[in-house]
Write a structure and sequence with these properties.
Layout (H helix, E strand, L loop, with lengths): L2 E5 L8 H8 L7 E5 L6 H7 L3 E5 H9 L4 E8 L4 E6 L14 E4 L4 H12 L8 E4 L4 H5 L5 E5 L14 E4 L11 E6 H6 L1 H20 L1 H9 L8 H15 L11 H13 L9 H4 L3 H9 L14
Parallel strand pairs: 1-2, 1-3, 6-7, 6-8
Antiparallel strand pairs: 3-10, 4-10, 5-8, 5-9
Helix pairs in contact: 1-7, 3-10, 7-8, 7-12
Length: 310
Amino acid sequence: MAIKLFLDGTPSARFAGELAAFKQGFFSSRIEVSAEPGDPDFVQTVARQHAIGVTSGQKFLLASWRGVPVTAFAASFLDTSVAIFTLQASGLRRPADLVGKRVGYRRASEGDAVFDAMMAQLGLPRSQITKVPDRDSFEALRAGEVDAIIAAIDDQPDPSSSTFLKLNVIKPQDYGIHVPGQVYFASNDLIHDKPSVIADALKGLIRGWQFAYADYARSVPVLAVGGQARLNPERLKFELQQQRSLVLPTGGRIGDYDESRWRTLRDVLLFAKLGEEDVPLAQAVNYQFLRDVYRRSPGLAVPGAWNEDK
């Protein structure tokens, strides 16, 4: 019977590694990829189905704290995709420039928590920032309803779009906030009963991301086709470019997260009072699958070896 790999969202560049691995046959185990957009209990669904999932580090960790029996084993985005956008003409370019300004955001979101942590770490007075709920769209920014918005880096309008805006981008990671952005996790039962499936899936996912980024001329047509909605190739390429540093950091390895980022995420969530750490990180996060995959297949870590034959 096939193991399900659930995506927390609709197929897009955000899931390029998973889609490429599935379409190019990089999974050696029987794994089916399935999108689950809008599931409020996504992590619980994955656990209940004894499956693999990919979601934000925040959503995973909060569910783990609530007792959902899951374990993270790698990351697709090694850092948060959250960014703060302002209009280029506004001159707002640094976190300090946002003091006294209106910031559009979504309550209890990853962006909300990361933004507050960044401002606190920089010692900036959050009480002097007017946060405007549900005004986190680029339309709200264009209309002047807010001075800045908190949104995902890959959500911004691309240059070919009629809604294109010249923007300044403030990235929390440039100010010392590093947290796992999107993580791969599985039900504890699956990890316990079929560890080889997790290892096979991880190897396929690494190769999938390598395929996605090795040559856009080859990968974009493959990723754009299939499923209910055909993706716009130009938009897809733009989104892949925006998130590239999150998937392939300089000097880093695909999928590889470290304990310091998880500790930062834990501290960010506790600071935001979004949950209580009832399950320690050592029980929620596994590093061994990644270490073993790269040890057994050292070629996976060599950028020059990136093609689907490796």
